[in-house]
Specification:
Strand order of the largest sheet: 2-1-5-4-3
Strand content: over 45%
Radius of gyration: 12 Å
Low-confidence stretches: none
Shape: globular
Mean pLDDT: 95
Structural class: alpha+beta
Length: 77
């Protein structure tokens, strides 16, 4: 299974898309959200960065502490 990842800046606490980096990350079928977040963070170089994680069902958002960025992890077939 693949997930689409977008890393973008924020302005006023909302995604701004002044710049964006996009990735596609391969994750095992049936993986837990926690393992998906770990894999994505490793791929985008955020290992060890504390993030607030929000699960929206088909999308997971990560808000790294101490920087004005947001990470969107979107599931697709």
């Amino acid at each position: 299974m693949q997930v689409q990842v977008e890393v973008t800046d924020t302005f006023g606490g909302e995604a701004n898309y002044g710049w964006v980096r996009r990735y596609e990350v391969e994750v095992p079928e049936g993986a837990t959200n926690r393992s998906i977040v770990r894999k994505v963070k490793k791929e985008i170089g955020y290992t060890g960065v504390r993030c607030q994680t929000t699960d929206w069902g088909d999308t997971i958002t990560l808000d790294p502490q101490g920087c004005c960025e947001r990470v969107f992890i979107t599931f697709f077939a």
